[in-house]
Amino acid sequence: MKNLLLAGIIGAAMTVSCSTAKTAQSDRSEFLKLKGSWEITSVNYDKNYKVKPFDEGADAQCFVGSQWKLIPNNWTGSYSINGGGDCPSVMQPIEFEVINGNEFKFKKLMEGSKAKAVTVGYSLSLISQTADQFSLEQNIPSGGENVRIVYNFERTGSK
């Protein structure tokens, strides 16, 4: 009886670990599709609000045309804002991850700091993804309501 119980426990553990591994592998393959160079082609939000995302001090529209490089195999990347007009010129290294296949988290890396020392970051929802486009959604609280911001990306470089 003990052997049967032990075999059942081991079998259940193997089933859970295999299904978790398959799910993780599936999520990883989707996540790896983000590898490459991207451009934000539009930022959509309620224009009644003044939105300055990612603590850059720049209006959300400054991110239209920004270049993003994502390297999923080492969880690093960067974004740059071209500058001009009221938009600053920014080159920002980041560390990012995708959790559960739909939560895109990133944190800005400051020169001379290690990623593990950075405790503040940003969490967005991956709301759509194809081989050459994806969209991220961010909800920012403002005056008791959430302002929904959608960033639309298009691939500009190799996969």
Keywords, separated by commas or semicolons:
19% helix, alpha+beta, disordered N terminus, 159 residues
The whole-number mean of residue pLDDT values reads 81
Residue runs with pLDDT of under 50 for 5 or more positions = 1-26
Q: Please describe the biggest sheet, giving its number of strands, its sense, and whether it closes into a barrel.
A: 8 strands, antiparallel, barrel
How does the overall form come out from the CA principal axes? globular
Helix content: 10-25%
Q: Count the DSSP helices.
A: 1
N-end to C-end Cα span: 54 Å
What is the CA-atom radius of gyration, in angstroms? 20 Å
Proportion of residues in extended strands: 35-45%
Strand arrangement in the largest pleated sheet: 1-2-3-4-5-6-7-8
Class by helix and strand content? alpha+beta
User: Helices and strands, in N-to-C order?
Assistant: HEEEEEEEE
Description:
This protein has one helix and eight strands; from the N terminus they run αββββββββ. It has 159 residues and is α+β, with helices and mostly antiparallel strands. It is globular, with a radius of gyration of 20 Å. 16% of the residues are buried.
How would you sum up this structure in a few lines?
This protein is an alpha+beta fold and 159 residues long.
List strands and helices in order, with pairings.
Elements: H1 2-32, E1 36-44, E2 67-71, E3 76-81, E4 90-99, E5 103-108, E6 122-129, E7 133-142, E8 145-155
Antiparallel strand pairs: 1-2, 1-8, 2-3, 3-4, 4-5, 5-6, 6-7, 7-8
